[in-house]
Amino acid sequence: MSYKTILVHSDAGLHWPARLDLAVRLARQHDAHLLGLHASSSAALSGLMLSGLDPVLAESLARLRTEQAAQAQASFNKAVSAAGINNAEWRLGGDDAVATVLTNARYVDLLILGQRDPAETDGGDSDFAEQVVLAAGRPVLMLPYAGRFASIGKQALVAWDASREAARAISDALPLLRQADNVKLITINPKSDRHGELPGADVGLYLARHGVRIEVVSDCCDHIGIGNELLSRAADFGSDLIVMGAYGHARLKELVMGGATRTILDSMTVPVLLSH
């Protein structure tokens, strides 16, 4: 079992090279088809919005968007060529970045997105990643905007709460977990009615049957919140990947994310694979 089609999201941000580097490494590792999709959130400055601007300014912004897309494509082509990846393609999205990514997500095994950098204000959707995570129907590997990651998935931390989302995340992450040197599955404040007498034992056995080197640990948290506890334990364990279910729903055109999910999306320190 492996990922055979991987989509990496490209935009006009400063962190695109880090995502591209990760995507190329994973594509080689899994012998996967790599799809580079340019759908910049700054594409919000198009169509109706550009039509209301001064013509000279509108033309300048449109030219900038075209140049940014061309630069991203050039870096993609260079990276896949240098890595010896023959099975790759590039697509240029439309004005709606979320819709573009969701449409293409239907036909891939894994999406690679970047955490939103609060220092980058491009006028796009501030909840772009959240919308994709909740609606893609595919696992999303989110890369933090800060830091460089020499390895991803060698030391994995799996968050388990016996929910549908957590079970989905574990199944979606199996191609990575099977190649990990060590996987720690953590239950936080487990309840016997959901986890059984030995919290995490059943899912630990499930992973072991798939050849995952698994260790089950239990933890208690009553003051810093589950999301912060996960990040703290990831640091303690030297984890380079967190696997977890994503919780959230739309309410009156506003996305309401679960507490732990929101904390991780805002404060992640290592790459996170999320499934909804």
Descriptive overview:
The protein has a ten-stranded mixed β-sheet with strand order 3-2-1-4-5-12-9-6-7-8, sandwiched between helices. Helix content is 41%, strand content 22%. Helix 1 (16-30) runs parallel beside helix 3, helix 4 packs parallel to helix 5 and helix 9 (226-237) packs across helix 10. It has helices at 16-30, 48-51, 55-82, 97-105, 128-135, 164-177, 192-195, 201-209, 226-237, 259-267; strands at 5-10, 33-38, 88-92, 110-114, 140-143, 155-159, 182-188, 214-219, 241-245, 248-251, 254-257, 272-275. It has two domains: 5-143, Rossmann fold (3-Layer(aba) Sandwich), CATH 3.40.50.620; 155-275, Rossmann fold (3-Layer(aba) Sandwich), CATH 3.40.50. With 276 residues, the chain is of the alpha/beta class.
Short description:
By secondary structure, the chain is of the alpha/beta class. The chain has ten helices and twelve strands.
Secondary-structure blueprint of this entry?
Layout: E1 5-10, H1 16-30, E2 33-38, H2 48-51, H3 55-82, E3 88-92, H4 97-105, E4 110-114, H5 128-135, E5 140-143, E6 155-159, H6 164-177, E7 182-188, H7 192-195, H8 201-209, E8 214-219, H9 226-237, E9 241-245, E10 248-251, E11 254-257, H10 259-267, E12 272-275
Please name the defining characteristics of this protein.
single chain; Rossmann fold; 22% strand; alpha/beta; 2 domains; 10 helices; 276 residues
Sheet-strand content, in percent, reads 15-25%
Terminus-to-terminus distance: 20 Å
Main pleated-sheet profile: 10 strands, mixed
**Rg to the nearest angstrom?**
19 Å
Helix content: 40-55%
Q: List the total number of helices.
A: 10
CATH architecture of the largest domain: 3-Layer(aba) Sandwich
Quick one: CATH class of the largest domain? Alpha Beta
The number of distinct β-strands equals 12
Shape: globular
If strands are numbered along the chain, what order do they take across the biggest sheet? 3-2-1-4-5-12-9-6-7-8
